[in-house]
Amino acid sequence: MVPVPPSLSERLLAWYGSHGRTDLPWQHPAAPYPVWISEIMLQQTQVQAVIPYFEKFMARFPDVQALAAAPVDEVLHIWSGLGYYARARNLHRAAKMVVSDHGGELPRSLDALMALPGIGRSTAAAILALSFGDRHAILDGNVKRVLCRYHAIEGWPGASGVARRLWAIAEAHAPDDDLAAYTQAFMDLGATVCTRSQPRCEDCPLNGDCLALAEGREAELPQRKPRKTTPLRQTVFVIVRDPRGRVLLERRPPAGVWGGLWSFPECEPGADIGAWCREHLGVAVRPVRELDALRHTFSHFRLDIQPALVSVDNAGAVSAVKDGADRQWYQMDSAERVGLAAPVTRLLDQLRSLVD
Fold first, then answer.
1. 258 dihedral zone (left: phi>0; alpha: psi -120 to 50; beta)
2. CATH number for the domain running over 8-214
3. Which of 145, 185, 226, 317 sits between 20 and 30 A of 128, alpha carbons compared?
4. Residue 45 φ/ψ, nearest 5 degrees
5. pLDDT value at position 148?
């Protein structure tokens, strides 16, 4: 009898036993809540960058009840610097729903998890597979890359037709047992061996029948998203400082760039700052200086920011709510825990050095 070669899942599990990551903080214990938090943080962000944020987040919000009860500003404050802030807002909203609708326990159902804000099919599957060992296939970026190379899948994985094919393949490969280890193994293989650039094919447990390797196409697959020119936008941050050294902040709208975070008021480049402040803030200001411009890069555009520092004699003349924006005077050396947009944090550090 001709021996049957080990399946993909068997080779992955054997490799994981010797080379997999088993000391990640959300693996001890691999309970639904920490797994959920980690999976949301790991969207668009690498493991090493996530670990310190995860530990800080869990120290402050050790369970879903603590997260649901916290002010959204504090959640955004803990998240500050991790980026993609819609993830934090969705976590907070979902925690409230888990407490109110599911008795404080994450539901053990793919559909029920997917009904929570910020949880898609792959994230829901990862929560159930990693914390319960339920048989659900995942399809995150690492798994897509491994499968595209292993099966020599043509096309950009984000295209709907390619994604459907990859989901079918992922489901077919999933074993009946050891789903937690298998799921972690698949993610680890893509993160540490089958990497985007310079994959270590000689160390891969799947190299014996990987089609991309056999065809010499490991650098070509998976195929990239068709390139588009990254647009460049410009804005002016109006930094209003009062006699006490406080600066004026506005809360951003819930949706869009830095949604729900606190930032400086903005105006169009070339605008008359004094006239703009009289119209939008209802206060006369005195120009101080322009600070060094900075560029902030998002996934879909680049933003050039010109900070303009002005001063005001009467902070009380600025309305707390105007043009639909909440406002507050922020003491730069304050320990107040509010969510700040990343460029705001950088500019506050620059302002502190000017004051010092």
1. left
2. 1.10.340.30
3. 145
4. -140, 140
5. 98
CATH 1.10.340.30 domain span(s) along the chain: 8-214
DSSP codes, 26-91? GGTT--HHHHHHHHHHTTTS-HHHHHHHHHHHHHH--SHHHHHHS-HHHHHHHHTTS--THHHHHH
Residue among 39, 154, 171, 266 flagged as catalytic: 39
Q: Which residues contact 148 (CB under 8 A, 6 or more apart)?
A: 157, 166, 212, 221, 222, 223
Instruction: Find out whether 30 and 199 touch, Cβ atoms under 8 Å.
Output: no
Share of the chain above pLDDT 90, in %: 78
Q: Is 164 helix (H, G, I), strand (E, B) or coil?
A: helix
The CA distance from 206 to 185, in Å, is 12
Which residues, in sequence order, are CB contacts of 200 under 8 Å at separation 6+? 193
Catalytic (active site) residue 250: no
- Give the Cα separation of 122 and 129 in Å (integer): 10
Taking only the tens place, the pLDDT of each residue in 61-89 is 999 999 999 999 999 999 998 988 999 99
The residues, ordered by sequence, that sit 6+ positions from 333 with a Cβ below 8 Å of its Cβ are 352
The stretch 170-191 carries a mean pLDDT of 96
pLDDT of residue 1: 41
Q: pTM for the full model?
A: 0.81
Q: What is the CA radius of gyration of the chain?
A: 24
Q: Please identify which residue in the block is written with the tokens 């899942």.
A: 9
Domain with CATH 3.90.79.10 in the chain: 232-355
